[in-house]
Amino acid sequence: MTIACLPGPPDDVPPYEPWAGEPEVLAEATEAGRRAAAWIRSLPAPPALSPVGTWLATTLPGAVESATGSLDPAQCDRRGPDGRLIEGNGGVDAGTTSTLAVVPCVLSDVDWLTPDQHLRLMAVASVVTGIARLLADDPGTAILHGQVTRMCATLDHATRPDTPGLASGFEQAL
User: Fold this and answer.
1) What's the alpha-carbon Rg for the chain, to the nearest Å?
2) Arithmetic mean of pLDDT, 130-148
3) DSSP bridge pairs for 141
4) H or E segment at 141?
5) How far is Cα 24 from Cα 61, in angstroms, rounded to an integer?
6) Which of 30, 39, 163, 171 could form a disulfide with 159 if both were Cys (CB 3.0 to 4.6 A apart)?
7) What is the mean pLDDT of residues 111-118?
8) 139, 73 in Cβ contact below 8 A?
9) 86, β-bridge pairs
10) pLDDT tens, 86-103?
């Protein structure tokens, strides 16, 4: 049996250097994610125990916290040593991304929540996924031009209890 070692990273790849203001932006995203997860946990429970109710109370808020707490601009799109494109994930693992992506499919099963709460849940999942994608696509622009900060403000707005109904226009149309 022959054992061959895989080659390590090339010596000419510069180490990752954080962008100006990166630690503050990532801390802000982590806090916004914690607040959003707390809001999700505060939603009314279903009238009877159900798997989707448990998912909503535990899995989704955990995914929101995990995603915002693991953001990593160094995990951005880049070229590998062989020249192939390596798609970044912004620091969010595939399982967490999958949990956030299933929110639109689950909303039809959470009929005890209001349309406003449905809309807010969609906003949370979209914003958290969007922050990771921004960091994966172009971390410098996302951090230096305040895109992550604006997304965190949107996340806070969507989960603020005193925010007038986001779905009021939708509810009036019904």
Assistant:
1) 19
2) 94
3) none
4) helix 139-144
5) 22
6) 39
7) 94
8) yes
9) 78
10) 899 999 999 999 999 999
